[in-house]
Amino acid sequence: xxEKNDKTDQLIETIYKHLKGKVNETSETANFITSYGDDGQSxxxxxxxxxxxxxxxxxxxxxxxxxxxxxxxxxxQAHKVKGAWKSTQENCFVLIALEKYFHIxxxxxxxxxxxxxxxxxxxxxxQYKGSSRKCx
Length: 136
Fold this sequence. Notes:
Shape: extended
Mean pLDDT: 86
Radius of gyration: 19 Å
Structural class: alpha+beta
Distance between the termini: 52 Å
Order of helices and strands: HEEHHHHEE
Strand order of the largest sheet: 1-2
InterPro entries: Terpenoid_cyclase/PrenylTrfase
């Protein structure tokens, strides 16, 4: 019913406002502060990056155009060490959230040629057409 949808929308808006008050934002990145007063991560199976990943997914659902989504994405990527996060569980949560982020934010198929110049010297080009998992 419409009344139920209105109540759900109001609840989502209330939670969203609460979360925006709990975020640590810089000009480039963002992360949510979650502290239990000790390093209980191994006991509680908790991690800041896992929390950020879960909240990124939620924000992509309720406000995908928010700059907070982009900042959370950059913040998550900034916490990688040697290509991974702290645990397998953290890797899973973060990679799922990032996949959703890139699926929403980069839905246009690339189709362009990049030319590289160094001063007046032409160094080459590379054509980007379609998506690929291949690294250059």
